[in-house]
């Protein structure tokens, strides 16, 4: 039986407004839409209004056979020296949820110092510190991300019991805090399988293209017959110091929507719908142009998630797993090293001997190659990228690809 015919539109408007911070629309519709679809972003209760520093973990819906990333966030760090270091533990029911990985969060907490995970008893603990600046962050900051996977067999929940062992400011004073626990609930509904590719758009702009390749029933992992996707919101997250999103282009049939790019925070949000629905595979859903900013060879990870994905009737679909791509500025052949081979790959691509891609040997990694020399509105691969990398390899340019002051092109 069908639900409201206009639900995808309501949902998409709600999505766009919620995710993109648009002005108030119809508040009721927005809240309804959020409660209908926003199963994965049930936020931890915040005690900010009371002036209490809170360390919270998100509540999340986990697909059977799938994994998701949850944020651990400190809110309400008081004005002063700011956050310098933390030590946290998380306990959970390992028969329902397991911690696959503990990662850093936003800068300056983009890495963890130590992490230990025991999935046999259900305890993870980790520490991090930031030594980049005596003025640490105040207010709200995402300090780490946990990759969780669902391992149970029915719709049950596990508490995500966070405990703050210690929270320090950069002067070495303890910051009093409370913890905000979350939960992870297994879902046995529909699972969307996403794909993230890197390459070039029709005009040569390099970047990534997210897509949904299939929708499965969680119980038997068989494709859901006749399912039409109606709307999505996607997030692309990255370290804003290493990567910039220059543009995000919605592609038909999901071309009604909106885009919000926040490079300082390292997140780009897309939300779009298609009124009549479309069956998977839908790839690409969009094209997101990327620029790498760091020194030659430095690594940058870009993660794609779908905070909301619904079928044409508004029923939620959980993503099986976030998708990631790792980039290295200059590494055109994708072997993680910077060498003359990268120069060769670019030159060979330019005369049509190699194709773009990042999943088969011999392909040219478009974003890595194009980002050697930045090119205006978007980066593309030109012979100047090969030239600059060669100049770097012979010592004429520094790792940021600036010409060295005492190096000159040969005279006559
Ligand atoms: Ca707790
Ligand atoms: Ca290489
Ligand atoms: Ca270029």
Summarize, please.
With 412 residues, this protein is mostly beta strands.
* CATH fold call of the domain at 48-187: Immunoglobulin-like
Number of strands: 21
Q: Largest sheet at a glance?
A: 6 strands, mixed
Ligand list: calcium ion
Which architecture of the domain at 48-187 would the CATH scheme give at its second level?
A: Sandwich
Strand order of the largest sheet: 2-11-9-4-7-6
Distance between the amino and carboxyl termini: 80 Å
User: Per the principal axes of the C-alpha atoms, what is the gross shape?
Assistant: globular
CATH class of the domain at 48-187: Mainly Beta
Strand content bin = 35-45%
Helix fraction bin: 10-25%
Taking pLDDT < 50 over at least 5 consecutive residues as the criterion, the unreliable ranges are 1-49
Using only C-alpha atoms, the radius of gyration works out to: 23 Å
Helix count, DSSP H or I runs of 4 or more residues: 5
- Pairing-aware structural class of the strands and helices? mainly beta
Order of helix and strand elements from N to C terminus: HHEEEEEEEEEEEEEEEEEEEEEHHH
Q: Can you tell me about this structure?
A:
- The protein is mainly β.
- Among the domains are: 140 residues, Sandwich (Immunoglobulin-like), CATH 2.60.40; 139 residues, Immunoglobulin-like, CATH 2.60.40.
- It is 13% helix and 42% strand.
- It is built from five helices and 21 strands.
- Strands 2-11-9-4-7-6 form a six-stranded mixed sheet, with no helix packed on it.
- Helix 1 packs across helix 2.
- The protein is globular and about 60 Å long.
- The N terminus is likely disordered.
- The site of one calcium ion has 5 residues, from strand 9.
């Amino acid at each position: 039986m069908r639900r409201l015919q206009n639900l995808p539109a309501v949902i998409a408007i709600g999505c766009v407004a919620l995710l993109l911070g648009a002005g108030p629309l119809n508040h009721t519709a927005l809240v309804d839409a959020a409660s209908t679809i926003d199963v994965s972003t049930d936020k931890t209760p915040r005690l900010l209004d009371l002036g209490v520093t809170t360390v919270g973990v998100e509540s999340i819906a986990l697909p059977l056979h799938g994994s998701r990333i949850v944020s651990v966030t400190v809110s309400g760090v008081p004005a002063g020296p700011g956050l310098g270091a933390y030590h946290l533990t998380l306990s959970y029911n390992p028969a329902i949820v397991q911690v696959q990985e503990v990662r850093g969060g936003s800068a300056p907490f983009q890495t963890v110092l130590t992490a230990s995970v025991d999935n046999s008893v259900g305890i993870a603990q980790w520490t991090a510190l930031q030594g980049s600046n005596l003025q640490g962050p105040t207010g709200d900051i995402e300090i780490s991300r946990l990759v969780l996977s669902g391992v149970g067999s029915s719709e049950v929940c596990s508490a995500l019991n966070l405990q703050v062992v210690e929270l320090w400011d950069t002067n070495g004073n303890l910051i009093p805090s409370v913890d905000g626990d979350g939960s992870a609930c297994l879902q046995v509904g529909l699972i969307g399988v996403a794909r993230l590719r890197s390459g070039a758009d029709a005009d040569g702009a390099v970047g990534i293209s997210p897509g949904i390749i299939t929708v499965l029933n969680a119980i038997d992992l068989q494709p859901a017959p006749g399912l039409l996707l109606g709307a999505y919101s996607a997030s692309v997250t990255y370290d804003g110091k290493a990567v910039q999103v220059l543009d995000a282009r919605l592609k038909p049939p999901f071309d009604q929507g909106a885009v919000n790019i926040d490079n300082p925070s390292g997140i780009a949000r897309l939300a779009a719908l298609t009124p009549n629905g479309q069956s998977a595979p839908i790839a690409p859903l969009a094209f997101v142009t990327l620029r790498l900013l760091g020194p030659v060879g430095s690594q940058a990870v870009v993660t794609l998630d779908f905070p909301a994905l619904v079928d044409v009737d508004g029923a939620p679909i959980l993503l099986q797993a976030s998708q990631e791509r790792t980039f290295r500025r200059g590494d055109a052949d994708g072997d993680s090293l910077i060498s003359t081979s990268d120069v060769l790959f670019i030159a060979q691509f330019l005369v049509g001997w190699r194709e773009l891609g990042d999943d088969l040997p011999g392909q040219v990694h478009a974003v890595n190659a194009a980002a050697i020399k930045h090119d205006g509105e978007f980066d593309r691969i030109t012979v100047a990228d090969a030239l600059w990398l060669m100049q770097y390899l012979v010592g004429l340019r520094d790792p940021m690809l600036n010409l060295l002051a005492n190096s000159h092109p040969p005279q006559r």
